[in-house]
Amino acid sequence: MMQEFSALPFSTVVADLHCVTKFSMLGSEWGGVTAATVLGLAPPAPGVTHVMVWAEYGYSANLRLSDFTAPH
After folding, report:
1. What is the per-residue pLDDT across 20-71, written as a single tens digit (0 to 9) for each?
2. CA distance 33 to 12
3. What are phi and psi of 38, to 5 degrees?
4. Cβ(37)–Cβ(8) under 8 Å?
5. CB contact at 8 A, 62 and 52
6. Res 2: pLDDT
7. What is the rounded CA–CA span in Å between residue 44 and residue 59?
8. Contact 50, 64 (CB under 8 A)
9. pTM for the full model?
10. Residue 57 three-state SS
11. Which residues contact 52 (CB under 8 A, 6 or more apart)?
12. Sign of the Cα pseudo-torsion (63, 31, 26, 70, in order)
């Protein structure tokens, strides 16, 4: 399964990160498979408006689907 995921198109985005703990990292480079690519292969159920994202160290956030799939 990791081989198939790694074969998906890799994309790079340069964007600012603003953390809720009041620090910012300007012009950070991020890379990986876009959410839009993944959702194109496994679309959410009709009527879904938000997603939940989990990260390392127990961090999580809920996002509007439109923000999650935005190219930036």
Report:
1. 888 999 999 989 999 999 999 999 999 999 999 999 999 999 999 999 988 7
2. 9
3. -65, -45
4. yes
5. yes
6. 87
7. 22
8. yes
9. 0.71
10. helix
11. 60, 61, 62, 63
12. negative
> In the prediction, which pLDDT does 42 show?
93
Q: Going by DSSP bridges, is the β-strand pair 60-64/11-18 parallel, antiparallel, or unpaired?
A: unpaired
* 3-class state of residue 66 by DSSP: helix
pLDDT at position 70, please?
A: 86
The closest alpha carbon to 33, from 16, 52, 12, belongs to 12
Centre a 10 Å sphere on the Cβ of residue 68 and count the other Cβ atoms it contains: 19
AA letter at 21: T
**Lookup: tokens for 53:** 């994202």
| Residue-level pLDDT at 65 | 94
Instruction: Please report which residue ranges of 1-50 form alpha helices under DSSP H.
Output: 2-6, 35-41
